[in-house]
Design a protein that fits this description.
This protein has about 110 residues and is α+β, with helices and mostly antiparallel strands. The protein has one domain. It contains 1 helix and 4 strands. Strands 1-2-3-4 form a 4-stranded antiparallel beta sheet, with helices on one face. The protein is elongated and about 60 Å long. The mean pLDDT is about 90.
């Protein structure tokens, strides 16, 4: 088998692995976003996340993994749209951010 064909098969195999791994990790990100929204009494809009960043990073043990950042939309009142994010290192959720919400207006009694 010529060298070009071997290299082509390796590249196609790597792309297939990246695609399947990305689907799996994206599902983990969706579950993390749903859990964070449920914990904060927020509504996850569209039930999905979208990738905003993909890069290589090292974990605590020094292994090189893909670091993926995803964005998602949520609502705290039901009639607005706010942006949140979830960051994963490999299949592990590193941080989920539901942004800064405004505190309710309080009336002080004198």
């Amino acid at each position: 088998m010529p060298t070009f064909e071997i290299i082509s098969l390796v590249v196609l195999g790597a792309l297939a692995w990246l695609w399947f791994d990305s689907i799996h990790v994206r599902d983990i990100g969706v579950r993390a976003a749903k859990a964070a929204c449920a914990a904060e009494s927020l509504q996850l809009l569209d039930d999905t996340v979208s990738i905003t960043s993909l890069r290589l990073a090292r974990d605590d043990e020094g292994r090189l993994l893909l670091r993926r950042a995803y964005a998602f939309d949520y609502s705290d009142t039901g009639d607005n749209r706010r942006r949140g994010s979830v960051v994963l290192l490999g299949p592990n959720v590193i941080v989920v951010n539901v942004g800064r919400r405004e505190a309710p207006h309080l009336t002080l009694l004198h």
